C-alpha cells in the first residue's frame, strides 16, 4: 500500500491544474491516468483542432484577398497538415508525464477504481490518500442505432491520415460545426444532420443563422430535422438511413451528438459518491456526497460549460481549498465561449433572448464589415451584439461573428469581469489600427 496526501484521478487540464498547484503548496500528490497524459484538450481536443483550423484561417484570409493581391488560393494538403498536427500531439503525453515527475508529483499509469473512500486500486496495487479528486472528463456519446459500430468520433477525425471524399456528421454542436468546416475547407463533401432546426442552441439565434448560411455557402450541406436511423457498410462506403428514410452514402460517419461523463467503472455507487448520467454531483465547494472526495471539470453534473479553462479554474480552486488558503464556495467569473468555424462565433455574458423583455438593458446591433479593421482584409461578414446596463453603462454581454471574434470577446470578458466603464476605455491609448483600438469607437 502506497500513501500520499492527495490522489487525483485524471490528468486533463483540470487534474493537472490541481496537481501542480497542490504540489507547489508542499502537498504530497499522485496523479492517475489510464490513457494519454494531458487528457482530452492537448491530445484529441482543442489543440489538434486549432492546428488544423489554423490552416483554414490562413486559407480564408487569402480567399478574402483573391483579386486584391492574390491570384490564387492554395488548396489544403491534408497529409502535410496532419504531419504538422502530429508534431504537436505526438510529444504531449510523454512531456506531460515528465513535467509531473519533475514537479515531484507521483504518476500512476492505469485505470483507478475506488476500494473505499480513502483507497483506490490501480493495476492490482492499492494507493491511499486523505483526499481524492475525481477529474475523469468526458467521452463521445454514441447514438444507439443499428450499425452504431460504424460511427467514428472527433478523436478519429483528428487522426485521419487521408481526407475522405464524402463525410457525414451527426449532430449540430461545437464539434460538428468546427470539424465540418475544416473538412469542407480541405476539399471533402460534407453533410451535417441535426435533429431539429436550431443548431448551437446556446448561441444567439440570428448570428447562428448567419453563420450556418455562410457555412452552407462554403459547401456544407445541412439536413435539419434529421438524424441517423441506421448505418450499414457496403463495400468501401457506408449507407446512412436518415429519419426521413433518405439514404446518404459516405466514406466516414462521425457521431458528434454530445459527450458523456467518465463515471462508470470507478465503483462510485459502492462508496456513496452520487452521480447521474450527466455526471458527478458536487456542492458549491466541488465536494461530492463523500466528504473527503472532490470532483472537477467535464465529469461534473453541473451546468457550467465543459471547457478547458473552466476545468483548470476548478483545479486551481480545489488546490486553494485543500491547502487551506481559501474556504469560500467556488465563484465563477463570466465564461466566454467560441465556435472556431468560418467565421468564428463567440459570446460572453447575457445574450439577446435574455434581455429583450428587460428595460434595464439596451442592445446595440452593429455591422462591423465597413470598419477599417475588417475592410482592409476584405472581410464581409462581421456582426456584433453588445448589451449594456442602462444605469451603470457597464457591459453585461456580447456576441460576435467574425474572424476577430476571439480577440473582441476576450476584451469584452475582461471588461465585464473587471466592471470597466466606457470612460476608462477612452482613458487608454491602444495600438492602432487594431481590434483593441476599435473599442473606443464603440463608446
Ligand atoms: C474535439 C474537441 C475540441 C475541443 N475544443 C475545445 C476548445 O477549443 N476550447 C475549450 O476550452 N475546450 C475544448 N474542448 C473541451 C476540452 O477538451 C475539455 O473541456 C477539457 O479537456 C476538460 O478537461 P478535464 O480535465 O475535465 O477532462 P479531460 O481532459 O477529459 O481529462 C480527463 C482524463 O481522465 C482520464 N481518466 C478517465 N477515467 C479514468 C480512470 N478511471 N482512471 C484514471 N484516469 C482516468 C482520461 O483518460 C483523461 O485523460 C474540446 C473537446 C473536444 C473533444
Ligand atoms: N470551441 C470549443 O470550446 C469546443 C469545441 C469542441 C467541443 N467543445 C466541448 O465539447 C462539448 C461536446 O461537443 P459536441 O459538439 O459533441 O456536443 P454539443 O452538445 O455541443 O452538440 C451536440 C449537438 O447534437 C445534437 N443532437 C443530439 N442528438 C442528436 C441526434 N440524435 N441527431 C442529430 N443531432 C443530435 C444536439 O442537439 C446538439 O446540438 C461541447 O459542449 C463543449 O463543451 C468545445
TrEMBL record:
GO molecular-function term, one example from the UniProt record: nucleotide binding
Domain FAD/NAD(P)-binding: 5-315
Record's keyword annotation contains Cytoplasm: no
InterPro entries with a match to the protein in the record: FAD/NAD-bd_sf (IPR036188), FAD/NAD-binding_dom (IPR023753), FAD/NAD-linked_Rdtase_dimer_sf (IPR016156), Pyr_nuc-diS_OxRdtase (IPR001100), Pyr_nucl-diS_OxRdtase_dimer (IPR004099)
Annotated NAD(+) binding sites: 171-178, 258
Positions annotated to bind FAD: 50, 298
Domain Pyridine nucleotide-disulphide oxidoreductase dimerisation: 335-437
Keyword Nucleotide-binding: yes
Cofactor note (record): Binds 1 FAD per subunit.
Protein origin, superkingdom: Bacteria
Keywords: FAD, Flavoprotein, NAD, Nucleotide-binding
Disulfide-bond pairs as recorded: 41-46
Pfam families recorded: Pyr_redox_2 (PF07992), Pyr_redox_dim (PF02852)
Cofactor: FAD
Family the UniProt entry places it in: Belongs to the class-I pyridine nucleotide-disulfide oxidoreductase family.
The protein, known as: Pyridine nucleotide-disulfide oxidoreductase
Native source species: Enterococcus caccae ATCC BAA-1240
Source lineage: Bacteria, Bacillati, Bacillota, Bacilli, Lactobacillales
Amino acid at each position: 500500500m502506497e500513501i500520499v496526501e492527495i490522489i487525483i484521478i485524471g490528468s486533463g487540464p483540470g487534474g493537472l491544474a490541481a496537481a501542480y498547484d497542490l504540489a507547489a503548496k508542499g502537498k504530497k500528490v499522485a496523479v492517475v491516468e489510464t490513457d494519454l497524459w494531458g487528457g482530452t484538450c492537448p491530445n484529441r481536443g482543442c489543440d489538434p483542432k486549432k492546428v488544423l483550423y489554423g490552416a483554414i484561417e490562413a486559407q480564408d484570409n487569402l480567399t478574402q484577398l483573391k483579386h486584391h493581391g492574390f491570384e490564387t488560393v492554395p488548396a489544403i494538403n491534408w497529409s502535410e497538415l496532419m504531419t504538422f498536427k502530429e508534431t504537436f500531439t505526438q510529444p504531449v503525453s510523454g512531456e506531460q508525464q515528465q513535467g509531473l515527475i519533475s514537479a515531484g508529483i507521483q504518476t500512476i499509469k492505469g485505470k483507478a477504481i475506488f476500494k473505499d473512500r480513502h483507497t483506490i486500486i490501480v493495476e492490482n496495487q492499492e494507493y491511499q490518500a486523505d483526499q481524492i479528486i475525481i477529474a475523469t472528463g468526458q467521452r463521445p456519446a454514441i447514438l444507439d442505432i443499428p450499425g452504431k459500430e460504424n460511427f467514428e468520433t472527433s478523436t478519429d477525425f483528428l487522426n485521419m491520415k487521408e481526407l475522405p471524399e464524402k463525410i457525414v456528421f451527426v449532430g449540430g454542436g461545437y464539434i460538428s460545426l468546427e470539424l465540418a468546416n475544416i473538412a469542407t475547407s480541405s476539399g471533402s463533401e460534407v453533410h451535417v444532420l441535426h435533429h431539429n432546426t436550431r443548431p448551437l442552441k446556446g448561441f444567439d439565434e440570428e448570428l447562428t443563422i448567419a453563420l450556418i448560411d455562410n457555412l452552407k455557402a462554403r459547401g456544407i450541406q445541412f439536413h435539419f430535422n434529421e438524424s441517423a436511423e441506421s448505418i450499414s457498410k457496403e463495400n468501401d462506403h457506408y449507407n446512412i438511413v436518415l429519419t426521413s428514410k433518405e439514404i446518404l452514402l459516405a466514406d466516414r460517419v462521425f457521431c458528434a451528438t454530445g459527450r458523456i461523463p467518465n463515471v462508470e467503472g470507478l465503483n462510485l455507487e459502492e462508496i456513496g459518491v452520487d452521480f447521474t448520467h450527466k455526471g458527478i454531483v458536487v456542492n458549491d465547494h466541488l465536494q461530492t456526497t463523500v466528504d473527503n472526495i472532490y470532483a472537477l471539470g467535464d465529469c461534473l453534473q453541473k451546468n457550467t460549460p465543459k471547457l478547458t479553462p473552466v476545468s483548470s479554474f476548478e483545479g486551481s480552486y480545489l488546490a486553494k481549498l485543500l491547502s487551506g488558503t481559501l474556504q469560500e464556495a467556488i465563484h465563477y467569473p463570466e465564461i466566454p465561449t467560441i465556435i472556431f468555424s468560418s467565421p468564428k462565433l463567440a459570446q460572453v455574458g447575457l445574450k439577446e433572448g435574455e434581455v429583450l423583455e428587460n428595460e434595464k438593458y439596451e442592445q446595440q446591433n452593429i455591422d462591423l464589415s465597413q470598419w477599417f479593421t475588417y475592410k482592409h482584409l476584405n472581410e464581409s461578414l462581421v456582426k456584433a451584439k453588445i448589451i449594456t446596463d442602462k444605469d451603470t453603462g457597464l457591459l453585461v454581454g456580447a456576441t460576435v461573428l467574425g474572424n476577430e471574434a476571439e480577440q473582441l470577446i476576450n476584451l469584452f470578458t475582461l471588461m465585464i469581469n473587471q466592471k470597466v466603464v466606457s470612460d476608462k476605455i477612452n482613458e487608454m491609448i491602444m495600438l492602432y489600427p487594431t481590434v483593441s483600438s476599435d473599442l473606443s469607437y464603440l463608446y
